[in-house]
Amino acid sequence: MGIHHQHIKQLASTHNKLWEWSAKEELPSFFTISTGYQTQGKGQDNNSWESERDANILLSSIVYPDFVNASDVFLLSRCISLGIVVYLQSKGIEQVRIKWPNDIYVGRKKIAGILIQNSIQGSWLQKSMFSIGLNLNQEKFVSDAPNPISLKQLTKKNYVVATEIELLMRSIEHEYAILQIKPEMIIQRYHKLMYQLGEWRSYWNKDFHFTAKIKGVDEFGRLILQRKDQTTEVYDLKDIRFALI
Q1: d(CA 225, CA 54)
Q2: What does the pLDDT average to over 107-126?
Q3: Helix 183-192 / helix 74-89 crossing angle, nearest 10 deg
Q4: What are the backbone dihedrals phi and psi of residue 49, each rounded to the nearest 5 degrees, phi first?
Q5: What is the model's pTM?
Q6: CA 60: distance to chain centroid?
Q7: DSSP letter, residue 54
Q8: Non-local CB neighbours of 70 within 8 Å, separated by 6+ positions
Q9: 11 near 17, Cβ under 8 Å?
Q10: How many Å separate Cα 198 from the centre of its chain?
Q11: Fewer C-beta within 10 Å: the chain N or C terminus?
Q12: Of 119, 3, 102, 2, nearest to 68 (Cα)?
């Protein structure tokens, strides 16, 4: 496949820019835009993403997963999450976990987030664009984000952003190749790496607080929780929040 990478010094949003370009022409698979600074960077659910200028990985990339049924759209999220996990593990980072649906944690600290936008034609995915914010060299965080951490804080090393983008994208591309031939492997590995899997933890369902443990994710990407009374329920992202305790 190969990765086509274009770096732009500053953008409003890599996500918006790449989607705009893809609407005008068919870009090659894994065409990637990165930037040193975003003025309107977004995370999941329209949350803002804090990033010091030229310190971190900020990128968007496009793929054409026309082998994925629309009902299995969460497979792509699993695949990209695993690509980031494997990249971080290659740096010697332990306790890397995937906080449903697609945040990457080290211990109880957030190191990366993913935003995915899909275009569906009929019963199949037509194109998917994913954006990644990964804290690389930043050492001081000034926003009200409760638990950020960077790779430099973990390893005490400084990283060349362009080099790390290439390594990260190679890892994601490798997981994407696995997805095409062994999707069940992607599902199994994502499950084992889920943050708080099998642990009794606190959650918020709108204004209601309760204790439950994660059992997994269903085929539609919904979180499966088991209550203390042994009942099992599924939740969409908008219906559930992790309690930060």
Answers
A1: 39
A2: 95
A3: 60
A4: -125, 115
A5: 0.94
A6: 11
A7: T
A8: 120, 122, 123, 124, 125
A9: yes
A10: 21
A11: C
A12: 119
Confidence of residue 50 (pLDDT cuts 50, 70, 90): confident
Q: What is the pLDDT of residues 155-169, one digit of tens each?
A: 999 999 999 999 999
- Residue 133's nearest CA partner among 205, 37, 202, 67 is 37
Residue 81, by phi and psi: left (phi above 0), alpha (psi -120 to 50) or beta?
alpha
Mean pLDDT across 57-68: 97
- Kindly state the tokens that stand for 113: 């987030």
In angstroms, the CA 65 to CA 77 distance is 12
pLDDT of 1 above 90: no
| 8 A C-beta contact, residue 219 and residue 71 | yes
Domain with CATH 2.30.30.100 in the chain: 200-242
200-242 fold: SH3 type barrels. (2.30.30)
Assigned fold of 4-192 = BirA Bifunctional Protein; domain 2 (3.30.930)
Q: Is the pLDDT of residue 43 over 60?
A: no
Residue 2: band (very low, low, confident or very high) from pLDDT cuts 50, 70, 90: low
List where CATH 3.30.930.10 sits in the chain.
4-192
End-to-end CA distance of the chain: 43
57-63 and 96-99 strand pairing: unpaired
One-letter amino acid identity for 134?
L
pLDDT at 208: 86
Structure tokens of 153?
A: 């804080």
What pairing do the DSSP bridges indicate for beta strands 31-38 and 57-63?
Answer: antiparallel
